[in-house]
Amino acid sequence: MHYIRKKRIESGEKLKQQPCEFFFRLLPVDFADSMCKLLIYMIMFALIYDFMLQYKILKKWDVFPLLAKIIETLICLFTINTERNLKMTVNILAVGDVCGKTGIDFLYQNLSSIKKSKNIAFTVVNGENANIVGITPTQAENIFSAGADVITLGNHTWARWEIKEYLQSNNRILRPANFALCCPGMGHNTYQTPFGEIAVINLIGRFTLDSNTDNPFYVVDEILTSLRTKMVLVDMHAEATSEKAAMGYYLDGRVSAVWGTHTHVQTSDAGVLQKGTGFITDLGMTGPAISVLGIEPRQSIDKFLGEPPRRYETAEGPGKIECAVFTLDTETGRCLNVEAMRIQ
To answer: Among 44, 205, 254, 263, which one is least packed by beta carbons within 10 Å?
Structure first.
C-alpha cells in the first residue's frame, strides 16, 4: 500500500496541467545515465585524438571537421535513443468508484499529487456513485476538474436523469456500451493524446445487476473490430468476480488493460495476464474509509437486521482512493506492469 500525504488545495486553485508538464513527466528514467554515456564518449574521443597527434596520424587542423562529424553522430544517436525511451512506456491510472461528497473531495485533494508521483499520462475514473446513486453533471465536472481524462459509469447511470443531456454533449464521459442502442451517450471512444491514440470501453455485467443489457462479450467483440488503436482500456462494471475475471481472460492479448468496478472492494490479483493484458478484478472505491461500501455502517447493519429500507446515507470521516497504475508499451499496446494502490 502506498500512502501519499494529502495536499490542501487553496480556494480557487485549479489542477490543470502546465504546458510543459507532460514533456517533463515523460523524460526517460535513464536520462542522467544517457548524459554520462555522452560524456564518456567525449573523453574517449579526446584520448584517441591525443594518441593520433602523438604518432602523427592526424594533423591539428584536421581535427575540426572530424570533431564536428563525431559530435553530429553522437547527438543523432542520443536523440534517437531519447525519443525511443519517450515513446516506450506510459502510465495509465484507473480510479475505483467515486462515492459521495467525501469521494469527490478526496479525489480533488489528492489526484494531482498521485499523478505527479506516478508520472501518470492518462486517467480514467469511475464516477457512477458520485451522488451515492448516480452522478449529476456538476459532479462530473468536479471529477474532471480534479484531473480525470475520462469518466466511466455503470448500473446507476440513469439514477439522475439530468445526466442524459450531459452524456450527449460530452464525449469524455461514457456509459456502458452494452446498454440499448436507444440510450443516450457513448459506450466507447478513442482519444488523441501526446503519446498516441487510446481507446476506452465501458461495459456492464449481467449477473444479478438486473439490467436490460446486451451480452458484454459479444458487444466488446464488435467494438474491437472497429478500433485501429493499439492501446485499449476496458472498465468492466459487474457484480460477479467470475464475470469480471472471465472478461479479463477473454480479452487477454486483445486489449491493453481490463479492470473491474462496482463492488467497492479492491482485490489482490493485480497483474499482467499471459498474453500481455493488465488486469485487476476490482479497483475498489474512492470515498469514506470507515464505511460499508461508502455507506454509513449503521445503516448497512440495520438493513441486514431487517429494518425497513431507506435512502442511502454516505458515511462521514476520512476518505481514501483505491486505484491501479497500468504501465503500457505504446508501440505494442501491451501492459508491462500493474500496481494496485490505496491512498488514505
So the answer is: 44
The helix (H) or strand (E) run that includes residue 76 is helix 63-88
Question: Is 237 annotated in the active site?
Answer: no
* Helix, strand, coil in percent for the chain, rounding step 5: 35, 25, 40
The tens place of each residue's pLDDT in the chain, 344 residues long, gives 443 333 333 333 333 444 444 444 444 445 556 667 667 777 777 777 676 666 666 555 555 565 666 666 666 655 555 445 455 899 999 999 999 999 999 999 999 999 999 999 999 999 999 999 999 999 999 999 999 999 999 999 999 999 999 999 999 999 999 999 999 999 999 999 999 999 999 999 998 876 689 999 999 999 999 999 999 999 999 999 999 999 999 999 999 999 999 999 999 999 999 999 999 999 999 999 998 888 788 988 988 999 998 888 888 889 999 999 999 999 999 999 999 999 99
CA neighbor of 271 nearest in space, from 232, 329, 203, 325: 325
Is 0.85 surpassed by the pTM of this model? no
Q: Which residue in 41, 27, 31, 36 sits closest to 74, CA to CA?
A: 41
Distance, in Å, from the CA atom of 65 to the CA atom of 59, rounded to the nearest integer, reads: 12
Structural domains of the chain ordered from first start: 25-86 (no CATH), 89-343 (3.60.21.10)
Residue 65: partners with Cβ closer than 8 Å, 6 or more residues away: none
Residue 100 has, within 13 A of its CA and on its CB side, a CA count of 22
Residue from 156, 188, 237, 264 carrying the catalytic annotation: 156
